[in-house]
Amino acid sequence: MSNKVVRLLNNYTKKRDSEKKQLASESRVSRRRTMFFGSILLGIAIILMLVAFNQKQANEELHGEVLATTEVLEKKNKQHSDLEQQIRQLNDDNYILRIARSEFFLSEEGELIFNLPDKEDKEQKQAEE
């Protein structure tokens, strides 16, 4: 004997089959909605990550430029302070007089200037002998 299950076709089974089909249909629609909104959410997350990555790279480049510019600014400030010091010295008559005497051998009236050889010149003469 074979044991077969015979399906009854009455109102209860028809109603039950109809409810199962309705539930399966609602489940499919719910899955599709979840997938749709999930994919939209995933797309937005990917776009935000790309924007954040690009911003981080731009920030690193700008940070490098700021460091380079800061170094240039420090050099220029030092050069500026050196030039200001030089201006102050050039406005001082004693400094100009000292430079004129040492560089150009200028003398006051009645003064004699003797040009003595430097140590290097003495060493060269001794090496030649």
TrEMBL record:
<keyword id="KW-0131">Cell cycle</keyword>
<protein>
    <submittedName>
        <fullName>Cell division protein DivIC</fullName>
    </submittedName>
</protein>
<dbReference type="GO" id="GO:0051301">
    <property type="term" value="P:cell division"/>
</dbReference>
<feature type="transmembrane region" description="Helical">
    <location>
        <begin position="35"/>
        <end position="53"/>
    </location>
</feature>
<keyword id="KW-0812">Transmembrane</keyword>
<dbReference type="Pfam" id="PF04977">
    <property type="entry name" value="DivIC"/>
</dbReference>
<keyword id="KW-0132">Cell division</keyword>
<dbReference type="InterPro" id="IPR039076">
    <property type="entry name" value="DivIC"/>
</dbReference>
<keyword id="KW-0472">Membrane</keyword>
<keyword id="KW-1133">Transmembrane helix</keyword>
<dbReference type="InterPro" id="IPR007060">
    <property type="entry name" value="FtsL/DivIC"/>
</dbReference>
